[in-house]
Amino acid sequence: MAVSNNITACVTLMALICAVPVIASGVWFASAQGEECARLARWPVAILGGLILLAALAGFVGAYWNRRRLLAFYLFAMASLIALLIALLVFAFAVTRGSGAYPVLGRAYDEYHLDGFSMWLRGYVSDDPARWERIKACLVVSDTCKKLARQAGFLTADQFYQSRLSPLQSGCCKPPAVCGFSYVSPTVWAAPAAHPAADADCGVWGNDPSQLCYECESCRAGLLAALRGQWHRANVALVVATVALVFLYLVGCSAYKNAQAEALFRRYKW
């Protein structure tokens, strides 16, 4: 192989390696959403990573055996896939910009409002009642609140208030602090004489394990906060992979041009 083809082969091999964290992020994100009972854009990242892997493999074969058409396909496909990956990252950062979290005096955990999230995320849990019914049914049988109820470390209200609850536990397993309920156990609360009229969630809470706050807006907000956290963790690996792929693509373009120039030189030399 020519020197430029050697460089291109190395570049495409490294692109193959860079596709692995993209696929891994997509698979992790899909499986993590299963734990949260949600199916929000589960597989696009993994599918995109698989396509990047196939394009890089075609580029490696083209560079190693000097197949110009495969190299040209690699450059075109990789440019398109990198553009899609960047668009996906921009979209993910845009729709997960707001956290919906707010601190509560005397509590170590945050509580959550739907108003703090983007309209696109709010639509996921509000626009389709049937979808939320499926999510709620999954949450009821999951360990989200059952695990909290089994924890023996919460002997007093102060111990519970200083615990680090997950967004789903904070939003779905207890009433909002504004409701003024008295702590009995992590998932059992005594109602006050009158509920604050300003928060509809106060009248929705029930101590029945199949009810709790699963119909509360705070539960929907807790779900979105959990999904938002997953997206942000996945985005770290995706940003690193994207930067590496862009750099490798530019090096590959330069090597491909040099290979074309070398081929023309050898052709006209004779």
From TrEMBL:
One cellular-component annotation, GO: membrane
One of the GO biological process terms: auxin-activated signaling pathway
The UniProt record lists the keyword Transmembrane helix: yes
Supply the alphabetized keyword list.
Answer: Membrane, Transmembrane, Transmembrane helix
Q: Which InterPro entries match?
A: TET_plant, Tetraspanin/Peripherin
Q: Which domain of life is it from?
A: Eukaryota
Annotated membrane topology is: Multi-pass membrane protein
Q: Where in the cell is it found?
A: Membrane
Q: What is its main location?
A: membrane
Q: Where are the transmembrane segments?
A: 6-31, 43-65, 71-95, 234-252
Keyword set includes Membrane = yes
Question: What protein name is recorded for this chain?
Answer: Tetraspanin-2
Which organism does this sequence originate in?
Answer: Oryza punctata (Red rice)
